[in-house]
Amino acid sequence: MGILHDDVVIIRPSEKEGDPSVITVNCPDKTGLGSDLCRILLFFGLSIVRGDVSTDGKWCYIVFWVVCKPATRWELLKKRLVQACPSCYSASGISYYRSESQSPKPPDVFLIKLCCVDRKGLLHDVTQVLSSLELNIQKVKVSTTPDGTVVDLFFITDTRELLHTKNRQEETYKALEDVMQDAVISFNIEKVGPEITACSQASPYLPSAITDDIFNLEMSNDLPSVSLTSNNVCVTMDNSLSPAHTLVQIVCQDHKGLLYDIMRTLKDYNIQISYGRFYIKQGRKCEIDLFIMQSDGKKIVDPSKQTALSSRLKMELLQPLRVTVVSRGPDTELLVANPVELSSKGRPLVFYDITLALKMLNTCIFSAEIGRHMIGDREWEVYRILLDEGASLSIPRRKVEEEVWKRLMGWE
């Protein structure tokens, strides 16, 4: 038996303004499914205010209560959520679901070359257009010439897998032209092979001066991620309440992507959730109860494993990203580091939030670069943004750090 295609994801938009919409997912289970679904909701700008998940290891039933934006594209959201579930096959003309038998091929990478006249907020406007078109930025290099001309290189993938077509390329150009008006000097899209993307990659290891700036004294009170959060993340584990599962209880302050940060951490540890409940109480205080087990189907009884998982969860909830502003001689550089899942997925819309925060601060970007690097034993997506000289002198460093952090955490 299976489940009809239209019943895999059911969305009930709220009927009253201010009430949450309800998203129900009913499909076969797979490792990391909760993380993948939460990542999609985060990409669409939805805030999860409550969640319930139940699975027997083969089939799962998940309900999200979400607060959405007025312009949420529900049909497109449903399509993306369905795609994240195990793939479907047709039997007697009816669509059913089954587990994926093989990994999907890597998406094609395209290079957008954009040359335009510089202005404040330009990079954010371009990023917003690309995001709305579901074009995912894999890497970017932005530079400004002395005469005020900006050269943007975006390495992107297309969620819709249509960027090789003339219509999709024309749609992209038209959307950029609409927002940039007469600022466009030249524009080009081309598919690039692995040899080009490999040449464009930065060194896998960052200079120690940069890693020290981002990760020095990870729990220091000088970091905006700690000074602006509750700094009171409580993670407890209990093996006495279930014969087969370890209960993980988390109490912390809400932030954008909170449930995603928890789910991606458990996914990286190959931890399976059998039952879970998430809700936000008054004052943005979150309480999460998760009944989990290891991939071998057993509860976590080893004290060292409990400590390792508990410590990682605390770290990911206190500092899901790293943000700092440093001086490079006469220049000022904004550094943001975003952990990459073991599946090679990074947190969505980070560059969008960074550029929006700088636009709100009326700060120009002189150059920008995104690269993936190994720092310690983990891969990180590192954003290096050189701020305009005038802005770096007029806005305090601490102010830039806090505004970027608040935007990334959804506290704007």
Automatic annotation (TrEMBL):
Molecular function terms, GO-annotated: amino acid binding
Domain ACT as annotated: residue spans: 111-192
Matching SUPFAM superfamilies: ACT-like (SSF55021)
Role played: Binds amino acids.
Listed PANTHER family: ACT DOMAIN-CONTAINING PROTEIN ACR10, ACT DOMAIN-CONTAINING PROTEIN ACR4-RELATED
InterPro entries xrefs: ACR1-12, ACR2/9/10_N, ACT-like_dom_sf, ACT_ACR9/10_C, ACT_dom
Repeat among keywords: yes
Record keywords, A-Z: Repeat
Keyword Chloroplast applies: no
Name of the protein this chain belongs to: ACT domain-containing protein ACR
